[in-house]
Amino acid sequence: MTEDQVGRILSVHLPGVEGLCAGCRWWWARLSPYPCYQAEWAARWHARSATRRFLDGLR
Ligand SMILES: [Zn+2]
Fold first, then answer.
1. Domain ranges of the chain
2. Dist. CA 59 → ligand 1 center (Å)
3. Burial category of 18 from C-beta neighbours within 10 Å (exposed 0-12, middle 13-18, buried 19 and up)
4. Rounded to the nearest whole angstrom, what is the distance from the C-alpha of residue 40 to the centroid of ligand 1?
5. Residues 6-56: pLDDT tens digits?
């Protein structure tokens, strides 16, 4: 997974109507409550890579 792909996931999986994920509904016609699995995963990935960059900067 590249940062670009993760950014795309984050930009699609957004809160939609009635607390559902707009991206899941649009892409897969799936009704997932937001944050859905993809949004959570992408957010975690982002946090991890930011931490990694931070730690690399300290060395
Ligand atoms: Zn989603």
1. 3-51
2. 36
3. exposed
4. 9
5. 999 999 999 999 999 999 999 989 999 999 999 999 999 999 999 999 999
pLDDT of residue 1: 83
CA of 15 to the centre of ligand 1 (A): 8
Residue 59 has pLDDT above 90, yes or no: no
Q: Calculate the CA 6 to chain-centre distance.
A: 6
| Ligand 1: centre distance to CA 38 (Å) | 5
Calculated CA dihedral for residues 33, 34, 40, 46, nearest 10 degrees:
160
